[in-house]
Amino acid sequence: MSVLAIDWGVVGIKAGQFILSFSILVILHELGHFLPARWFKCRVEKFYLFFNPWFSLWKKKIGETEYGVGWIPFGGYVKIAGMIDESMDKEQMKKPPEPYEFRAKPAWQRLIIMLGGVTVNILLAIVIFIGIMYTWGEKYIPAQNLKYGVYVDSLGKRIGMQNGDKIVAVAGIPVEKVGTVGSMIILNQAKNITIERNGKDTVLNIPPGFIEQLNKNKLGGFTYVRTPLFVDTVLPGTQITSTVPLKKGDQLIAIQHIPVAYNNDAYQVLKNLKDKDSVQYTFLRNGHDTISAFVINNAKMKSGIGFQSPDQVLGTVQIHYSFIQAIPEGVKKCYSTLVNYISNLKLLFTSKEVKVNDSLGSVISIGGIFPGVWDWQSFWTLTAIFSIILAFMNVLPIPALDGGHALFTLVEMVTGRKPSDKFMEYAQMVGMVLLLSLMAYALGLDFLRIFRH
């Protein structure tokens, strides 16, 4: 087992984004239950963000409702009088129903209350996506702009790829945007990819086991954007000794006299120089002048020189939307996200290479998805995606979830027979055991992943 070097600053930023995103989703989801319950004159006894066994971090009673914040960030809840839920309040259920209780309301009202959270999550995702389209639009690097091709890791080399190749199609489907190849391979369970090498197209077969390994690579894929390195900025405090000051646009061509053509070359050279205090960089200016610079290095291989991003070097497509145009685009984005999520979920049952152990994760995995810097576009995009996932998972017909309660209510509406309180108690217990077991399993998988690295 290796010792992980943890950047607590990055961990804090990721955790902060996760807590804020999760809090927004949980509060609005529970509000989706709370509001219709109050509209139909049900008594809501508790409204909690996060779970609070034994004690609460904060609580305050306003009217007949206790509002609070729990200490286990796995969800939240509203406790509606006369409803069999996670509180398992059996004493209340032994008494005759009161007019303000959930169980005393008509089935159609109870159904609306149950599906309120899911409805709010879907509407929230649509609203967020509309806001994203209106505020930032869409920005991406077209695949055709990869004029320097890609560089590949050991997984890419397994299928015969080489540095400089360009992936033009996956299973015959043209690649339009950079960064989509990995998901295209997994979703389509692709058997081959088409690459362009030296101006010629070649079809490479994908061997068994490749997709399984690709699915395990949570932080990457098998190919990465390759670009030359051009100076963008020199960060304040950077210690550089050079013949002339560096300028924006200077191209890095060597490190310690070792030729460097692309970003991957620089990474490989610097990896072997991480213990060296001072490193000599050679730059090319205006295509003919060379500049030598000695840069103070550190263990994290951060020189203090900021290089242009792939977006800047390769160029991007930027699409702007008016507010009216953003509405259908936001709806389409919500729909495509849901379809992709369901497709990924189906692969757990239909694919031989997409394994539950590689795909399932707890709050640790979810928190790790957020970027290590605070980026509002990424934050809202991930919040919208998680809102869709939360809606879908909650509508599943599993006891203890909204979908389970809704299913029993629909059966009652069709048959005219209401399930007994005892049946609902047992169903709730079974559902809770299943959910808690799944959460514990996902948490265990995350801890295993941490210690394996």
Automatic annotation (TrEMBL):
Family to which the UniProt record says this protein belongs: Belongs to the peptidase M50B family.
Entries under PANTHER family matching the protein: MEMBRANE METALLOPROTEASE ARASP2, CHLOROPLASTIC-RELATED, REGULATOR OF SIGMA-E PROTEASE RSEP
Protein name, UniProt field: Zinc metalloprotease
Keywords attached to this entry: Hydrolase, Membrane, Metal-binding, Metalloprotease, Protease, Transmembrane, Transmembrane helix, Zinc
Subcellular location: Membrane
Topology term for the membrane: Multi-pass membrane protein
Gene Ontology cellular-component terms listed: membrane
The Peptidase M50 domain, residue ranges: 18-438
InterPro entries noted in UniProt: PDZ_sf, Pept_M50_Zn, Peptidase_M50
Single Gene Ontology BP annotation: proteolysis
Cofactor(s), names only, from the UniProt record: Zn(2+)
Gene Ontology molecular function, alphabetical: metal ion binding; metalloendopeptidase activity
Stretches that traverse the bilayer: 6-28, 111-136, 379-400, 426-448
Superkingdom per UniProt: Bacteria
Enzyme class: hydrolase
Entry annotated with the keyword Transmembrane helix: yes
Documented EC number(s): 3.4.24.-
SUPFAM superfamilies (UniProt xref): PDZ domain-like
